[in-house]
Amino acid sequence: METIEAINKRVSVRFFKEKQITQEELNIILHAGARAPIGLKKYDEMHITVIQNKELLERLDNAIQKYSGQNKRRFFHGAPTGIIVSGKPTNYAYMEYDNGACIIENMILAATDLNIGNVYMKSMIPFLEDSPTFMKELKIPDGFIPLAGLAIGYPIEELQREPKEHKIEINII
Ligand SMILES: Cc1cc2nc3c(=O)[nH]c(=O)nc-3n(C[C@H](O)[C@H](O)[C@H](O)COP(=O)(O)O)c2cc1C
Question: pTM of the entire structure?
Answer without folding.
Answer: 0.96
